Amino acid sequence: MESKIPNHIAIIMDGNGRWAEKRGLPRTLGHKEGANALRKIITYAGKIGVKYLTVYAFSTENWKRSKDEVDALMFLFKTYLKNEEKSIMKNNVRFLVSGRKDDVSPSLLEAIKKLEDKSKNNTGLTLNIAFNYGGRAEIVDAVNSILKSGIDNLAEEDFSKYLYNNIPDPELLVRTSGELRISNFLLWQIAYSEIYITDALWPDFDEKELDKAIESYNGRDRRFGGVKNA
C-alpha cells in the first residue's frame, strides 16, 4: 500500500546542543549542524510531496540562554537566510516566519521580510519557521487582534485567521531528542496532530528518519474524536 504523505509536518528540532556536547564541541557547532539537517529535510519534504513544513527554530523562552549562545543563534539565522535564498528560490519554496518581532534586530527583520517577499509567489513547499515563537504568545496575540477588530463573537473555525500565518494545521508533529514535551509549540494547531517522538538528535535527523515518522503516521487511526466505521 502506498504511503500517505502528510500535507503539513511540524518539527520540534531539539538536541543541537547535546549533539555538540557529546562530541566535546561548542554548542554553537551543534546549531550549525542542525541548519545542515534542516536543509536536507526541506529538500526531501518538497520532493516527496509535503506541502507545508513548520520547524521550531527559536522560542520566546530561548532568550533565557546565555548571551553568547543567543547571539550565535541570531547570527546563524541571518547567515542561513543569506545562504539559502538561492536554494529556496531554485526549489520553488515559499518562505514564512511565525513569531513575535519584539527583541529581534531590525537588520534580521529586514532579511526575513526580504525573503518572504521574494518567495511569496512560489508554489512548492511552504517553509514556515517558528522564530521568537511561543504557542501561548501566539494565542494571546490573536485574541488581542480580535479585540482590536471589535468582534465579540467568533466561530472556532475563524480563529485560525488571526494566528501568525493562516496555514493548515499539521497532521504530524515530530519531536527529536526523545523529549516528551510539546514545549509551547503550535498549541492551537496541533489539537488533532499525530505525535512522533524519536531519540535521534536533530543534527542526526535525516531522510530515513523522516520516512520512519511518516511510516508511523500511516499506521495511526485518525478518528478526530469520532468512531471508526465497521
Overall body shape: globular
* N to C succession of SSEs: EHHEHEHEHHEEH
pLDDT averaged over residues: 93
- In total, the number of domains comes to 1
Oligomer: single chain
Count of separate DSSP helical elements: 7
Spatial gap, N to C terminus: 20 Å
Structural category is: alpha/beta
* Unreliable stretches: none
Percent range of helical residues: 40-55%
Feature tags:
ditrans,polycis-polyprenyl diphosphate synthase [(2E,6E)-farnesyl diphosphate specific] activity, alpha/beta, 43% helix, globular, 230 residues, transferase, 6-stranded parallel β-sheet, magnesium
What does this structure look like?
Belongs to the UPP synthase family. This is Isoprenyl transferase. Catalyzes the condensation of isopentenyl diphosphate (IPP) with allylic pyrophosphates generating different type of terpenoids. InterPro entries: UPP_synth-like, UPP_synth-like_CS, UPP_synth-like_sf. Its cofactor is Mg(2+). The protein is an alpha/beta fold and about 230 residues long. The chain has one domain (about 10-220). Helices cover about 45% and strands about 15% of the residues. The chain is built from seven helices and six strands. Strands 3-4-2-1-5-6 form a six-stranded parallel β-sheet, with helices on both faces. Helix 4 links the parallel strand 3 (about 95-100) and strand 4. Helix 1 crosses helix 2 (about 25-50), helix 2 (about 25-50) packs parallel to helix 3 (about 65-90) and helix 3 runs parallel beside helix 4. The longest helix is centred in the middle third of the chain and has 24 residues, at about 65-90. The two termini are about 20 Å apart. The mean pLDDT is about 95.
